[in-house]
Amino acid sequence: MRNRVFRFSAVTAVLAMTMLPVAGQAPYRAPRGPDGHPNLNGIWQALTGDWDLEGHAARASLIVEAGTLLAEPGGMGVVDGGTIPYKPEALAKKKQNYDNRLSADPVVKCYLPGVPRATYMPYPFQIFQSDKYLAIAYEFDSAFRNIYLKDPGPAPVDSWMGQSYGHWEGDTLVVEVTGLDERTWFDRAGDYHSDALKVTERYTPVAPNILNYEATIDDPKVFSRPWKISLPLYKHAEKNAQLIEFKCVEFVEELMYGKYRKK
Amino acid sequence: MRHGVLTSLAAVAALSAAALAAQTTAGAETTSAKKSWTVPRLADGHPDLQGIWTNATITPLERPGQFAGKATVSDAEAAKFEHQNNDNLYGDRRSADAERDRDHAYNALFFDRGTELARVDGVKRTSLIVDPPDGKIPPLTPEARNRMGNRVRNRFDSVQDRPLGERCILGFGSTSGPPMMPVLYNNNYQIVQTPAAIMILVEMVHDVRYIHMDRREHLPGSVRLWLGDSIGHWEGDTLVVDSTNFTDKTSFRGSSPNMHIVERFTRVENGTILYKWTIDDPESFTRPFSAEYPFRAAVGPIFEYACHEGNYAMPDILGGARAADAKQKN
């Protein structure tokens, strides 16, 4: 997995240097899709976010045997203003999550990652945008969500990937995500939310093969005010890029059920 | 856990209603409506296969003995079979005592197999298999019989002994396929078409199939996938999907990892895709065989099937087996 991320980052770094818009130029106008809006079809991936949304230095691996292979790289952070505005009483829970993250992170057990985390996990995802549908399929755990373009009404039940309702504001796809299960986390550092979570995402093409991704997190039970993350999403440029099944249930069975093995 | 159960129940209830509604609509279709219908198309000229579809049917894969020699039946004959089947499937299954009721935990609330035999070309079918003409899977090769004989069955020593459906890795009964088979419930699919790839969402255990339209070569043999590697192209108005590169962890009725399956999707009338497939696997079957059945328009949305997240049954199943072991020792 790490190899793939590193290889990918070299490719996209070149793209980013050559294609980011320069101040004073007209705003980037993306090629149109079959619905007349910017064409978001393709395989996308973030390079930052999942280790810790907030800025952090590199850290040792939680698994001694894995040495540097699973050591945690540092990151500049993707939170506007740098810090997540936890309510004082909620910050204790985050710290507890962080201390117990090797067992407590729901993604360790291959549970669906929720939104926005699915976007910036170190796995690609594919946007399917047709004349009448908008859907995102994620490599990790075959996670999937429809982005409904007509108001679906209140989410009938909570779900791990939530209910997504999208509309276009100019060339920006705005998606309101509600009905999110309270058990997901935002990252590997224990950042969390309650069942009151509402996420508003904004996908904006800013250059060929680059989307700017923003997610505003609103959860008055846990945070003192709404807050926002921003990060770029890069389009895979390999000629043979495609999602490859990552059906991780199989990979966690020993962890979850090994204790029941017949002795 | 509570969320998981509520989700499944709500989904099943909504979808059962949707499936019944869809059937009523299709049944009431008039001849004149059929004549005026034309294949809907996308801007690129290819047929529009998009939407939410169900392949629910009570027609079995293989032809039952009572229909031997009859590939199709009249609506009157079909009705007799359907009534009998539906009474068994959807009737009151409660037993006299709680002990036996436990085995009936799955009941009409869950079942969504439809209420009719599959109708193709206006006529009801007695088996999904159409070739060989007897409607049966061809005999297995000795190699495949041997392979099947060695399979672990009904053992509880570890999670790996349990079937893939119980482990929430794939839906039971080849729902994701290919071939995409109808089973007892959750027979719902969503198709989205883009130029480079066509996506099929499989409701059961939330799987997504990718039909690659932008390459003609299969992946190298070193890349083997649960759902195989699917590449597609158009033959006239039919989407043809060719799949290989399966793993040795799945088997369709005795197939090997070298199974080659070709699926064909054709919009044949309003609200219906005719789905045909042919399996060619000389290592396992003494001849190729083919099936066909409709995918019918259904009303969405499809809700998230978070199977693994709510799989509290697995610790109970294995824990129960270990408790039984301990009891036997004492």
Topology:
The complex is a heterodimer of chains A (about 260) and B (about 325).
Chain A: H1 2-19, E1 42-46, H2 88-99, H3 101-104, H4 117-120, E2 125-129, E3 134-138, E4 144-148, E5 163-169, E6 172-178, E7 198-207, E8 210-218, E9 227-235, H5 249-257
Parallel strand pairs in A: 4-5
Antiparallel strand pairs in A: 1-2, 1-9, 2-3, 3-4, 5-6, 6-7, 7-8, 8-9
Chain B: H1 2-27, H2 31-36, E1 51-54, E2 72-73, H3 75-90, H4 98-101, E3 119-120, E4 123-125, E5 129-131, H5 142-149, E6 188-193, E7 197-202, E8 207-212, E9 229-235, E10 238-244, E11 260-269, E12 272-280, E13 289-297, H6 313-329
Parallel strand pairs in B: 8-9
Antiparallel strand pairs in B: 1-6, 1-13, 2-4, 3-4, 5-13, 6-7, 7-8, 9-10, 10-11, 11-12, 12-13
Q: Summarize this, please?
A:
Chain A has 263 residues and is α+β, with helices and mostly antiparallel strands. Chain A has five helices and nine strands, in the order H-E-H-H-H-E-E-E-E-E-E-E-E-H.
